[in-house]
Amino acid sequence: MKLVAREIDLGSRSPTVLLNTADATELGVHQLDRVQIEHDGRLSIGIVEFTEELVDPGTLGVTRRLGHLVGSVDVIPAPQPTAVHYIKKKLDDVELEKHELQRIVLDIKQDRLSDVELGAYVTATYTNGLSLAETMHLAECMADVGDAIQWDDAVVADKHSIGGVAGNRVTPIVVSIVAAAGLKIPKTSSRAVTSPAGTADTMEVLCDVAFSLEEIKQIVTETNGCLVWGGSVNLSPVDDKIIRAETPLSIDPPGQIIASVLSKKKSAGSTHIVVDIPYGEGAKVESLAAARELAQDFKRVGDHLGMTIECTITRGSQPIGRGVGPILEARDVLDTLAGDGPEELRLKSLRLADILLESCGCESEAAEILDSGRALAKFREIVAAQGGNPDVTADDLVPGRHELLVAADRDGVVTHVDNRLVSDVARRAGAPKDKGAGITLHCRVGDEIHTDDPLFTVHAESKDKLADAERLVGQSETVRVRSRDEALVERV
């Protein structure tokens, strides 16, 4: 069918085309089918949407991804991508071969799958899981389709946490310690997906985080480390597309976690990685047994990829730092580096750093590097290299001026601080978009509490968002306080 292509202003990540319903009927295509478009001897594929109003009969509306199509084009139905057949196999719980996973990864990278098809892939891996062999192949394929950083060093360190724990901002501290010890540690981090702050959101309070691969290499060459946003570079780009499909349902299959993490580390040129796996009530991994199984699989896949993986299994049943939200977490980082941060954040950072240093064959001790001020000096060096003010202190960072203090309504003991609710309240308050939004925690599990003692403070940059957060606080139990007798029953 001959049609006239014109670009339409319709936001879409996939190569979408709009057909008038009459033309679609004549072509014999349905919603989300594909059409092949020939223009000037060049073939393109578009995913079909119908419309009655946006394009007239005889016109093909093309989105920006297909903006090179202008004027007269030939349009015919196109078959489904081969990847869709393999996704159906996975939905039927059939183990996939490497070439089949490779085809799925390539089609995701090239945006050849519709949102429904990508959602089906995520559903299949969540429902039926990935075997160890599938996870190994998937990690390889995901690393292969993106860019890669090459380093001259035989040892390149890295650190990752699987997430799920509020205020767990150990990464800037670990990076500073390891870089100060003389090792390269090019840390690419994510922005928040369902949390109130990712490492990139927290660092953005202090400096730039979006850099090209060449700029990252220059920063690491100068300072031994970096703390940058992974989304600004093309390292394992399929991972970001899969995460977008997982986010609406908040699902994160273990095999996909491993493939996503290690494909990015492989692409970043990392050779020695410590992976933090928090477990407990409210964390992504709830049982110690599941955490141990995940750790073993991380190590097996790492061996397959030629990387040395050390896993730490840590308690994740409550937030780590005092602050939750970009500015509040940045304050905790600066305080800890200066010797006055939350004790749990300090201890966890030191433990992870020591394990990573030992894995890399470095005899330096994390506590000595931190207590001597060398880690703080290195952090300031990295901040300066990334365009920030190296002299900023925690006192310079001011959270949102609209506040809600939540106090205890009874005497008792704190038996639980709910990670998910802490994160939800902080996000309702505006985090991570509003850098000053979030929560300051005034208590921890095991603390003895009296009526009217402060439990936590919600910070917001607008009254409306604070009111939204306050409604959630009123409907839930973010911090659980029980009498001593009730607390004893809970522990039993």
Strand-helix topology:
Blueprint (H helix, E strand, L loop, with lengths): L1 E6 L8 E5 H7 L6 E6 L2 E10 L7 E4 L8 E8 L3 H10 L6 H12 L5 H14 L3 H13 L12 E5 L9 H10 L4 E5 L9 H5 L9 H11 L1 E5 L7 H10 L7 H14 L4 E8 L8 H18 L2 E8 L7 E2 L1 H12 L5 H17 L6 H6 L2 H12 L16 E6 L4 E6 L1 H10 L9 E4 L6 E2 L4 E7 L2 H13 L3 E4 L1 H8 L1
Parallel strand pairs: 1-5, 2-4, 7-10, 8-9, 10-11
Antiparallel strand pairs: 1-6, 2-5, 3-4, 3-6, 12-15, 13-17, 14-16, 14-18, 15-17
Description:
With 492 residues, the chain is α/β, with parallel strands linked by helices. It has four domains: 2-78, Barwin-like endoglucanases; 82-129, Transferase, Pyrimidine Nucleoside Phosphorylase, Chain A, domain 3, CATH 1.20.970; 157-232 and 261-394, Nucleoside phosphorylase/phosphoribosyltransferase catalytic domain (Pyrimidine Nucleoside Phosphorylase, Chain A, domain 2); 402-491, Alpha-Beta Complex (Aldehyde Oxidoreductase, domain 3), CATH 3.90.1170. Helices cover 41% and strands 21% of the residues. Strands 1-5-2-4-3-6 form a six-stranded mixed beta barrel. Helix 3 (98-109) packs across helix 5 (132-144) and helix 5 (132-144) packs across helix 11. It is globular. The chain starts with a strand and ends with a helix. The model has no long low-confidence stretch (mean pLDDT 93). InterPro entries: AMP_phosphorylase, Glycosyl_Trfase_fam3, Glycosyl_Trfase_fam3_N_dom, Glycosyl_Trfase_fam3_N_dom_sf, Nuc_phospho_transferase, PYNP-like_C_sf, PYNP_C, Pyrmidine_PPase_CS. One of its GO terms (biological process) is pyrimidine nucleobase metabolic process. Keywords: Glycosyltransferase, Transferase. It holds the Pfam family PYNP_C. It is an enzyme of class 2 (transferase).
